[in-house]
C-alpha cells in the first residue's frame, strides 16, 4: 500500500476529460475466497491509493464468511478495507447440487446490492462458481465487468466457468501471452484486452521478509529448517470427485511414507471437499507428529512458507503459477491444472494412481532449487491495470462487440499503449567492458549500458546486479517485457548450471563462478549463461547469416579467437563444455606460444593479441612505420597499426598478416574436414581482413567436396549482446509445457 501511495504522489495530476472533470470511477471489487483475494488485494490497494481517480466498494461473499474455511473476511479487515456488504451465499453440502444452489442464492441477493452501489465497473476474478454469479448479475444489470485472469486453460468445470465469464465481461486483464491469444481467438475485442501479468506477482516479487524463520516455526514447529518441509494443497476435481478423493488418499499415504514435516491446507468449498476432510481425519493427519493441518494461512505468510519449502504438492493453481516466482519445486497431481503454462520447477503426475508414483515424484523434487520463473508476471501488473481503468470511456456503448472472424496471426506485433514488446536482458562480459542491453524479439537493441569491467569478483558481480536491476526497471518505461537474462562471458561455461568453470586470462577472478543464482534471485527471472563464442553462433542463427542454415560454424576474430558450431540447428557444447574452442586448433608444431600454454594455435597467429605482439617487434626494430604513418610517444602499438602499415606498403607487416590469414584458413580447413558445415561466418573486428586469405587457403588445401563452402563476414553489429539475448528469446518462445 505504501508503494502505491508513493507512486501516486509522483504522478502528475491528470485531468479526467473523458468522464467529466470531477467524475471518479466507482469500482466494485467482489471477493469470494482466500485465493481470489490474494490476486485482488494488490489492485484494491492501488485503487485505494488514488482517491482522486477512484471510489472503491468492497463486497464479500462465498467461503470468506464460513468458519470451516477460516473466516477469511477478517484478513480483508486487517488490510484496512471497509467491507460495504457481506453476503452469505454458500449452501452447505459440498456436492454438485450445493454448488448450483449457491450460485442461485448469490443471484437472488446480488441485485439489491448492485442497485444500492451503482458501480461504474465491477472487477471479477478467475473461474469460481461464485464469480459466475457475480458476472451474470452485473451483465444483466448493465454494469461493466473487468475480468482478471481470463483466457487461461485448466481442468475441471473451472475452465468452462472462466470462459463463460469471458463472454460476459467487457474488459479483460490476462497474465500471459498465450492467454491473450486465447481471448483473441474467442473473438474478444483486442482493444479491450490488457496483458498485465498476475497482480499477486506484484506482492510476490517485492516480498522481502527477513524474519521468515519465525513464520516457518509458527506454522511447522521450532525444529524445522528451510528447504526441509513440504506444503500440501489439494482440492477436489468437480468433474471426477471419486477419483480426486482417491488421489488425495494416495497423496497422504505418500507424504506419511516420505516422513518430512508437512503443512496441509484444507481444500476449498467445491463439491467433494467434505469427503477429502474425512480422509484427512481417517488417517489422523490433524494429530500426526509430522503434519500440521490448517484451514487458512494469511497470504503474506503463505508466500514465505512456499518460498522456503523443500517442495509443494497438490493440484492448486498456486503451485503452477505463484510458486514459480521462487523456484520452489512443485509436484502437480492429476488433471485440475491441465493446460496451464508452467515453469521448469513443476513436475506433472497426471495419472497419480499409485502411492509409489507420488512417492517417487517426491524423491525427485524434494530439496531442489530451480531458476525463478516470471511466466505469469513481472511485478508491474497493478500500475498497468490502474492505467487501463483510467482509459475506460464510460460514454462508449455498453453493448459488447465480438471480432469475427478471428484476428490475424500477426496481430500481436501491433504494439500500442496496452501491449509490450517481448524482450531479453543481455549481458556481455568482455575483457575490458561490461555491457547490459535490452534486446527486442527482432534483435533491436532498445537500450544499452556500458561500464568498465571491474578487476575483482566481488566488484564485478555487484556491478552486474546493479546494471541488470537498472535495465529491468527501465524496461517498463520503454514498453518492454523482460522474459529472462542471457549472459555471454569468456572462458569455459557449464550452461546447464549457469557456472563459469574456467576463465580466460583477460578476465581475472572468474573461475568456478555461479552466475545464474545471484542474478535470478535479484531479478526473479530465469537466467541463461554461455561462452561468448557460442553466443556469437546463436546470434547468427537467430538474426544473421545462419538463420535457417542447418550446419554452420562461426569464428570470432578479435582480441582472441573463438567460435561456435551449430549442427542440425543445435549448438554443440561437448561432453565437458569445451567444444568449439576453435582458437586453439594447432596449425604448426613449432609455432609461437599461445596464452593457453601450447604452441602453434590459431590464436597465437591471428588474434588481436598476436598481431599486437608482432607489431611491437617491428616497432622496436623501427620497421613498422612507413610513409603516411605517425605515432605519438605515449601511443600504444596495436594490431590496427600493423594493418595500417600493410595497407601503406610495409612488406613485413603484410607478410605477418598473410601468415595470420593462412593460419586461420588452415584452421577453417580442419573444421571443414571435421564438421563439414555448409557455411563459415567470420565475425569480429578482424574478419574483413581475413576473409579473402581464408578463401584462398580453402581453394588450395581443402578436399574438393568441401571447397564449395560459403565463407562470409558477419553483418551483425553486436553479436555478443544479440547472442546473449538469443539464449533467452529462443528458449522462452519455443518452450512448450
Give a written overview of the molecule.
By secondary structure, the protein is α/β, with parallel strands linked by helices. 39% of the residues lie in helices and 18% in strands. The chain is built from 24 helices and 26 strands. Strands 3-2-1-4-5-6-7 form a seven-stranded parallel sheet, with helices on both faces.
List descriptors.
737 residues; alpha/beta; Rossmann fold; Nucleotidyltransferase, domain 5; 4 domains; 7-stranded parallel β-sheet; 6-stranded parallel β-sheet; 24 helices; 26 strands; elongated
Q: Mind telling me the CATH class of the largest domain?
A: Alpha Beta
Tell me, rounded to a whole number, the average pLDDT: 89
Main sheet: strand order: 3-2-1-4-5-6-7
Indicate the overall shape: elongated
- At the fourth level of CATH, the homologous superfamily of the largest domain is Glycogen Phosphorylase B
Structural class: alpha/beta
Question: According to CATH, what is the topology of the largest domain?
Answer: Rossmann fold
Topology:
Elements: H1 2-10, E1 25-31, H2 34-48, E2 54-61, H3 73-78, E3 83-87, H4 96-117, E4 121-125, H5 129-140, E5 144-148, H6 158-168, E6 171-174, H7 177-185, E7 193-195, H8 200-204, H9 212-220, E8 229-233, H10 241-258, E9 261-265, H11 273-282, E10 291-294, H12 299-307, E11 311-314, H13 317-320, E12 330-333, E13 346-349, H14 355-365, H15 381-390, E14 421-429, E15 433-440, E16 445-452, H16 457-477, E17 480-489, E18 492-494, E19 499-502, E20 513-514, H17 516-523, E21 527-531, H18 532-543, E22 552-557, E23 561-567, E24 570-571, H19 602-606, H20 608-620, H21 639-647, H22 651-675, E25 679-683, H23 687-701, E26 710-713, H24 719-734
